[in-house]
Amino acid sequence: EQYNAGLSDCLTPITKDSSRSNHYCYQVLCEQRDELVGFLASHGIEARIRHDFLIPDHPIFSLMPGSYPNARRLVSRTLCLPMHHQLSDEDVYYVISCVRHFYGSGG
Question: Which of 85, 4, 5, 83 is nearest to 45 (CA)?
């Protein structure tokens, strides 16, 4: 919920209802994803790209027809911010501050 409140003007959460999350990660849709990952890494924050390609792009599925433009757009924008039981409130606020700084939204 801290991420939802602190990043609502920067990122789009995949799941806004925290009661439906397993709290494994905070998954968002964002612009400039790869640049954001690099920026966060330079500030000591590990953000992950869980799915960096579509299943139809895997060689075993190479004969599947279709271009899947919506899926391609989504997979290129999906990012997981840190979320785990050892993450303190201060850690979450630091992540929020860094993301907001990256997008020029203060922080």
Answer: 83
Q: Say whether 25 sits in a helix, a strand or coil.
A: coil
Question: How do beta strands 12-13 and 26-29 pair?
Answer: antiparallel
What length is written for the chain?
Answer: 107
The string of pLDDT tens digits covering residues 47-77 is 999 877 788 888 888 777 778 888 888 888 9
What is the spatial distance between Cα 84 and Cα 33, in angstroms, rounded to a whole number?
A: 21
CA angle 19, 40, 6 (to 5 degrees): 40
pLDDT in tens, 74-94: 888 999 999 888 889 999 999
User: What separation, in Å, do the N-terminal and C-terminal C-alpha atoms of the chain show?
Assistant: 17
The two most distant CA atoms of the chain are separated, in Å, by 48
